[in-house]
Predict the structure.
Amino acid sequence: MQRKQNTTRKAAIHPYQKTASFLFDHLVRESQRLPLTPELNALSAGKKGTVRAYYIRKTADTLLIITIMAAVSLASILYYSKQDHTVISNQLTRPGYGENDIDEELNLSVPGEKESESLTVHISSRKYTDKEVQSILKKAEKQLKEQICGDNSSLDEVRYPLNFPETFEDGQVEAEYSVIPSEMIDETGAIIGKPDKKGNAVTIEITFRLQGKEKIAKLGAVIFPPILSSEEQFQEDLEKELSKADSQDPASETIVLPDQAGGRSLFWQYPKGSGLTLILILSLLLPALFWIRKDEEIRQKAAERKERLDLDYSELLFKLTLLLGAGLTIKGAFVRIFSQNQTADKALHPVYEEVHFMLREISGGVPEGTAYENFGRRCSLPQYIKLGSLLAQNLRKGSRGLTSLLEKEAFLSLQQHRTAARKMGEKASMKMLFPMILMFVDVIIILMVPALLNM
């Protein structure tokens, strides 16, 4: 059981790992110095293959993003390209008889003279003769009598909503309804009142309109209490709940939609819109932004590492001076410093990681003086380079006077550390200045607006 728990799992292989490795090995020369090489080497404490691994991983991730966005863009383009936007034979279809005039938005271009520009073309509808208008109005009245009953057997017994079509004759004739008395049936034909069991008589007046002409018809109906199906009852309950929600607390900025109606749970959503333009823009920007962002993260980490090394320099010098004064050798002093701080957070104290790498170099056969110089170059700060050279020189010439030199260097670095801390405090106060100005402006607005409104 324990062996099964200790079995290591193979890491998932990136789908573009081999492609990225192939591109890197064939496009990047072995001696070529890539951007961020110093920062990556600094962050990895000199580990080999870090630069190659970083660029291969970043390239693989970028290729994956490009593939995904290209697939989404291609699918979107294919979907929208199915619509033919060409005006065939320069002919536009007029609106049908009785329909409203329309304005068509088109793109006009003159080959060799003018590029494509937007133009509005007004298109009027087709017109009937007066005789045709009267004939169509009569047909519309006949259609109304056939359709108005809806689910009711006749107008003498209306228990369900009446059918009040807004148009007739394929949309050519418009119809407007008025019911007397109006509190029993609304303009859509729905029963809104509470009719008696014996029925309530109403008069329905219909005005037909076509091409500026009107025809008025009147029909009588008797309204009885409706018998609602389960779905109709739900719709009525839903309308009541929505009306209740709208009328409740009219002074509030928001309206709370009902979560139940007719014993059913309700779930509300906004309609989904088309995002083709956004998809295409993201397809172009996302891989580039990802590539730039990865480099920016490395630069930021490298800059933070330099700041931490600068802050830790004086502490390292004081510890080194103290241990050398106690009789330890330079290597022994570094061994003691690392052993006391090996559990320190490497992100907060990268200097101990560099010390550890330096001790590993010495253990691996690198001359001690060379390891100290390498230590200073890896830290890439002038004070560390100076310290590495100083330690290497004193190792060759003898360590006499080294302690006094390190003490002077320590006190000098402490003064520089104080100066740097003061500058960091000034930067922080400057960053707080803008929010304070915004708060001041807010206070002024809060005080001045009521006074201005009362004037």
